[in-house]
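Researcher: Before we compare anything, I want clean individual predictions. No alignment, no superposition, just each chain on its own. First chain goes here; please echo the sequence and then give the structure tokens.
Model: Echoing the first chain and its structure:
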Amino acid sequence: MPESEPKPKLIELVAPGAGQGWKATLRNGKAVVIHEIPAPSAEAAAAVPRIQRLAEHRHPALAPVLAWGTDPSGIWVAVEPNEGVPLGTILSRGPLSPPAAAALGAAVLSGVAALHEAGIAMGGFGAAAIRVTGNGEVRLSGHPAAAVRGAPSQSDLRADVRSCGMAICAAFGVDPAGAPAPPTIPPGLVVTMRSMASGAMGPAADRAQGALREMASRPSNHGVPRRPRPQVHRSRSRPHPRRSPRRCPTRRLCAPRRRTTLLFDH
């Protein structure tokens, strides 16, 4: 049977009800989780080149396939024991800063584009499929199961782009239905992410990646330009009177604000 290495011994079931995941150890001693993907023998054989490509040509925005193989029930894949925190968990505490949301969106679009180029489509996904690792890397998970399916249809490709748009809107705190967006987000980018979320953009979203990458590279205090301070012209003939030592009533308003954290450290 085609495989990258013999199927390791399954030790313990993890996350019951969320897919067949088993704790195991690879030949090199690395601890992994084995996911078993049921498929008829013909479909499993057809999926081998796609699974092999995922394992050999890893993409930074896709959770890596560490090992794989076939058995009488279908295909098994080995993944990291901890693929990161689901995006939904992070956003439960509020939207991300605009640069962090842009970086996340660009990464998700990049991962989806890599899957489509490999002839794989997830047919849509939720926030649980987007994971953020401990060092802030954004990865899409659950794609090996999609690789077992046949050639993706146009509706599958469109569904992936719609899912990207919904995730990006959620990360920015933008209502995909059309409610007013935060003023710190460029209007053109709001239109783009809403077009993705509605399916109006179609199966390709290449143009959105450039706008997101540009925004991700900006400092965290970007947004609406600051108004210039008015010039105060004083007469040279009159000395400036001394200020009263009393406390300024707007002291709190004049206090410097804290900088927004850019990392995914919620």
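Researcher: Okay. Second chain, same rules.
Model: Second chain and its structure:
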Amino acid sequence: MKKIIAAAVTVTTVLSLAACGGNTAVDKSDCLDVPQDVLNVVASGSDSSGLKPETGKAVKGDTEGTYWLAMKFTADGFNGDTETGIWLVSSAAPVMSVDGFAKQFTHWPTQINGTELNGTEEKAKAAAACLA
């Protein structure tokens, strides 16, 4: 419970995201930089995979205070390589794991009202395009 509250507080107070550089697949004004503190909150949902956040971009969700976040990260056994995972962060709920990598490396919830998140959501794809 303490971790969920910390995530909500951090997302609420720290997610002052600034517009990022462009990508042809998504309007560049929709891409937002993600502060390291928020990336650390997402990574705090890792079990013991040695997940270390590298960088992240986000797009605003359809609900106020909600962001779809793409994060490049390393983990034990990656030999310095990075992978990208997608998470949903909100000021009103815990962090949520969206795609396969997010689900594999963190233990955040994966459903909204019984609907499984899977990374094919338009906002998830937009966040990934911002980071590409």
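Researcher: What stands out in the second chain?
Model: Helices lie at 2-14, 36-43, 100-105, 122-131. Additionally, The radius of gyration is 13 Å.
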